[in-house]
């Protein structure tokens, strides 16, 4: 596979500061790796001899596992570093911790941290590649890229589609990365949820804000049903989960009012019966598990592009 | 090595629903891998390119490590998923969690869960192979198979032997899997322990129940000394550990009343001085560490048989 | 690479019982692996087919990661065993736990435990190699070896140099291993810290004890700034961290009174502003990150020497 000439980055920190061309490059490379994943063995050892470190200062299972598998499918070694058993408890700074891991001989640091901007900070301080695996409510670029990849595979395009992000926009790094990425590729983005979770400020960027899900059903091509992140909320932003699902849950009745080829995405882990009913989550319009598979391909692409950059 | 013609399963869920012929097939294949483990390198990469996931919803060190090593000895990749850091805490169902891991490109899920039947449920819902690594008090087939393998290696047979399972039959998945497996192979099984831990109901299946260990010493070929699982018991089923060891602990005095070639097994981790005294656990009749080594061979056999099934 | 004729050990338990020649052998072998780590791929698969187990009964991230990477750079498999999820909670002895892991087919056990002497105990009871990764306040040989390697690389010698260990000598296994190792190689060791952390008893061994850091600045070639291990101390051994850093912290003012080519080491994780100020830690005299890199090389050397011993 030829290394794409337009890729010049050693870090993937977010989709806000990246061009449409670069996003398309990642998607195209990911399509190649998606094919690799379908073949026996599922490997292409382009990164043999490289070592990637999962530096997860916040708990995660699926993103860490997905990055770890992506690195191994490329032949790289992976070391897992989790905050719970780490030196951070001993008073060390995140930069010292990361520099220490790097000094052991690391080529890429995959960073999740509750503090927005921490991957950028580490990218400035370390010599190795840094990939953002989620920094607080700021960005989660590989999640958005896998969402966009899933959309592009279904519709063979992104431009001109209307994508509605439903739910907890305020706390969602996935939402933010999706907004930047989708708009760069020419999609029309609608943000939908209760006013406590969706700010009118987004309208200043020319993004439509809708407080009624029913009002956008018929003109949406893709629904991305964000998780209600109870663990991030101090004050409950809606009266009850029952009311939330009544107003914003995707169920079979609402689906009947959607376009025939509507695509249902959810970044997971899903709260069944809250953002989406089981009938919809497991139905033919849903691509929830395809998203997971595409996620490994996106992460292979991101790792290879950043690590092979000289 | 030739794939055995009589093996048709993609899952290993328990020994209750499996035939004597199939059990013998696993044991025979495991003997082959036992030889591989004695050779330098200890590997036979029959599963190169495959990925196994340890899906442990209950804590475990030794079973998880044993399965992980078995997979790696066969050249497979292994990913570890533990419940403590998982999405389950975020309200996801076990099926969604497993389907997500599977969608990342998993060929086999090795499942431990506190709920009986959960591996069977996952086998119905997933496309990948499922191996039961312990489901509550229900079954723990690879533990029973490694016990039976250790017996067969010592006596060159299983049929006709008398095996006494001692202790906490009520809470023990190991006991249940041993009962099904041993009886299918023609062994005579005795269940021995306090009446609070050994139900008379087993007699309905034609299994002997003994409340006195001393009464069966002279006619038992193999003692399998089950762990008192304090962590599973709500009510203490006997007055004191001192009384338990007095009545059911295997010590040097009791050993003197056993057959000369008696075999002492214990699934571990053992409570020294409770189920078994150090002199017996470390003595020549004991095969406790052989069991551990055989466990890796059994798990290699189970993984290879299930994963190579088309 | 030729196996050194003077190495006869299968275990590395500490530096107190090892000869100067053996220490030099480890350092020389480590220099070879240091070169390997600079090359693309960073691997020399001398231990392919071997399996190392990290048996960490105390939490650790960096030492465990460093040993794990060292083993993988040599082509060995690594299994991680941590006490938190282990059978120890079920009442098993450390020897039974270790023997069980060994019976799964382990060639080396890398042991960290809070109890002094536990690696030695395991070395007597197991057939596999045992490497001490820190046993309470007793020894931490690979940490001292990487400190000494860093010193030797900077000065091209160790004999005749004056090395001052600053801080918490009483609780520090790193200090003890450094004292044994440095003195065997002919260095002059000074122990410096508050009297609550540095005993006058060391003077009986002919080691200088200094309670004033300022008094030794001008005649020290290497400062090794030990961590104040708050987590090991029951009673606070000094009135405040402010007073400690005032009396024993290495800052830019003190550095100005040091020799021009003074070397600053710290085993980390460092408490910035306590033992050392950021200006000094990140300055040209500091070799804190070199220590980390050398640590991987030292552990590769220790693993290869012990595991290849027949």
Q: Which stretches of chain A of 5+ consecutive residues score pLDDT under 50?
A: none
What is the β-strand count of chain A? 10
Query: How are helices and strands ordered from N to C of chain A?
Result: EHEHEHEHEHEHEEEHHEHH
In which order are the strands of the major sheet of chain A placed? 1-5-4-2-3
Beta-strand content of chain A = 15-25%
State the end-to-end distance of chain A.
Answer: 17 Å
CATH fold description of the largest domain in chain A: Rossmann fold
- The chain-level mean pLDDT of chain A equals 94
- Helix content estimate of chain A: 25-40%
* Coarse morphology of chain A: globular
Question: What is the SS-derived class of chain A?
Answer: alpha/beta
Task: Provide the gyration radius of chain A in Å.
Answer: 19 Å
Description:
The structure is a homotrimer of 310-residue chains. With 310 residues, chain A is an alpha/beta fold. In chain A, 36% of the residues lie in helices and 15% in strands. In chain A, the strands form two sheets. In chain A, strands 1-5-4-2-3 form a five-stranded parallel beta sheet, sandwiched between helices. In chain A, strand 2 (51-56), helix 2 and strand 3 (77-82) form a beta-alpha-beta unit. The mean pLDDT of chain A is 94. Chains in contact: A-B, A-C, B-C. Chain A binds chain C through residues 48-49, 51, 77, 79, 81, 85-87, 90-93, 96-97, 99-101, 103-105, and chain C through 37, 40-43, 59-62, 65-66, 68-69, 72-73, 82, 84, 227, 230-231, 268-272, 289-290, 292-293, 295-296.
What key phrases describe this protein's structure?
alpha/beta; 10 helices; five-stranded parallel beta sheet; Rossmann fold; homotrimer; 2 domains
């Amino acid at each position: 596979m030829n290394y794409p000439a337009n890729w010049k980055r050693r870090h993937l920190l977010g989709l806000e500061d990246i061009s449409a061309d670069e996003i398309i490059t990642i998607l195209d490379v990911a399509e190649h790796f998606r094919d690799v994943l379908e073949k026996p063995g599922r490997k292409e050892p382009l990164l043999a001899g490289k070592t990637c470190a999962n530096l997860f200062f916040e708990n995660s299972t699926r993103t860490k596992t997905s990055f770890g598998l992506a690195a191994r499918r490329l032949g790289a070694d992976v070391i897992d570093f989790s905050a719970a058993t780490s030196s951070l408890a001993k008073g060390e700074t995140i930069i010292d911790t990361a520099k220490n891991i790097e000094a052991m001989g690391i080529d890429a640091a995959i960073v999740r941290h509750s503090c927005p901007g921490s991957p950028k900070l580490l990218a400035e301080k370390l010599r190795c590649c840094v990939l953002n695996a989620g920094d607080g409510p700021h960005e989660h670029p590989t999640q958005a890229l896998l969402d966009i990849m899933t959309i592009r595979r279904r519709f063979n395009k992104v431009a001109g589609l209307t994508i509605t992000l439903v739910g907890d926009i305020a706390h969602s790094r996935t939402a933010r990365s999706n907004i930047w990425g989708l708009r760069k590729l020419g999609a029309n983005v609608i943000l939908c949820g209760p006013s406590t979770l969706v700010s009118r400020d987004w309208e200043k960027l020319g993004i439509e804000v809708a407080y009624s899900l029913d009002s956008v059903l018929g003109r949406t091509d893709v629904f991305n049903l964000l998780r209600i992140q109870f663990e991030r909320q101090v004050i409950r932003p809606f009266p009850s989960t029952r009311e939330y699902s009544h107003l914003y849950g995707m169920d079979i009745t609402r689906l009947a009012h959607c376009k025939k080829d509507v695509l249902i995405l959810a970044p997971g882990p899903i709260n069944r019966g809250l953002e989406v009913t089981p009938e919809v989550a497991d139905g033919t319009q849903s691509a929830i598990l395809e998203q997971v598979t595409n996620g490994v391909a996106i992460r292979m692409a991101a790792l290879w592009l950043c690590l092979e950059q000289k």
